[in-house]
Amino acid sequence: MSYEVFYEEFGYPMMGNKLQKLISFLSGEQLTYDEGIEFTVNLVDSKGKIAATGSLEGKILKCIAVSDSFQGEGLAAKIVTILISQALSKGYSHLFLFTKPDNINIFNDLGFYLIAKTKDAALMENIKNGISEYVNSLKPRITYADTGAIVLNCNPFTNGHLYLIETASKQCEFLHLFVVSEDKSIFPSEVRYDLVKNGVKHLNNVVVHTTSDYLISSATFPTYFIKDKFKAGNINCLLDLKIFCEYFAGILNIKKRFVGTEPFDKVTAEYNIEMKRVLYEYNIEVVEIQRLETNNAAISASLVRKLLAEGDYEKIKNMVPKTTYDFLISDEGNKIREKLRSQ
């Protein structure tokens, strides 16, 4: 059967009956439709049935499936070509592909290279050794025997984050800070990175990095960004943790990962539990540090955001470093406040 018998059906994303048809098709292929999808292409046969599909979320290709009836027709290649074209039109050239492990060889032939896999999922990218080259670029000039790491979002950077970092910096020779790069927080990634970098300048054994696309992203840990839909114990973070252990910890000689206790956020609390189990298998110690409190309450970024929306700068002043406070009262900080107030 030739490709000409199929027609292309596009969604930005799919809606209504077309979405329900897509969800049903994916379910039959043991796949789940992802909340964050922005674009979908279906190849539909002459009877109106989906023969193949694929979707895009930013720079991530996902939910790619071909019906068993049309295997060997080159439909996967056609879907990937369309998705790549769409991603390039949005300015994305470094692309990632999220798929089932059984499909690795198919996408290898289409120019994607394996980053990591679990029994349920595999993450690939279109740059050979892209992740290794990125992590190698973060290596310090000196090799330290006792190296630690913290991965943070900092939305925004608070005294709680600073306390965690200062405490951790005293418990290792060298400390890597990874600020989540994905822009799905009210404070943009560049702002969060700068707030952390400016807030830890006094710590000589601490260096700040971005996570690029490799840690806590929509590909490696999608649940992080849909916390309101979270169900306890039902998070898919194993891929994210394997990437940290096999690349970041392996290349940077990280022996400890520091986390704060988590009394508020179920996703982060579950993630920390899973982290202890996985990192133990790689001989990496997870060090949990008690959260900093003020007025008998733990400091949290969510509380700072709430106070910012209310305009209560007096309370905020006691919860954030001066560098963060100065940003919050700036014109750019006021713009973020207005966004919070309108939510």
Provide structural commentary.
The structure is a single chain. The chain has 343 residues and is α/β, with parallel strands linked by helices. It has two domains: 3-128, 3-Layer(aba) Sandwich (Aminopeptidase), CATH 3.40.630; 132-342, 3-Layer(aba) Sandwich (Rossmann fold). 37% of the residues lie in helices and 21% in strands. The protein contains twelve helices and 14 strands. The strands form three sheets. The chain has a seven-stranded mixed beta sheet, sandwiched between helices. It has a five-stranded parallel beta sheet with strand order 10-9-8-11-12, sandwiched between helices. Strands 13-14 form a two-stranded antiparallel ribbon. α6 links the parallel β9 and β10. It is globular and about 65 Å long. It starts with 6 loop residues before the first strand and ends with a helix. 39% of the residues are buried.
Task: Sum up the structure in keywords.
single chain; 343 residues; alpha/beta; Aminopeptidase; Rossmann fold; 2 domains; 12 helices; 14 strands; globular
Secondary-structure blueprint of this entry?
Blueprint: E1 7-11, H1 16-28, E2 39-44, E3 50-57, E4 60-66, H2 75-89, E5 96-99, H3 104-108, E6 113-117, E7 122-125, H4 130-136, E8 147-152, H5 159-169, E9 174-179, H6 189-199, E10 206-210, H7 238-252, E11 254-260, H8 266-281, E12 285-289, E13 293-294, E14 297-298, H9 301-310, H10 313-317, H11 322-328, H12 331-342
Parallel strand pairs: 4-5, 8-9, 8-11, 9-10, 11-12
Antiparallel strand pairs: 1-2, 2-3, 3-4, 5-7, 6-7, 13-14
Helix pairs in contact: 4-7, 7-8, 9-12
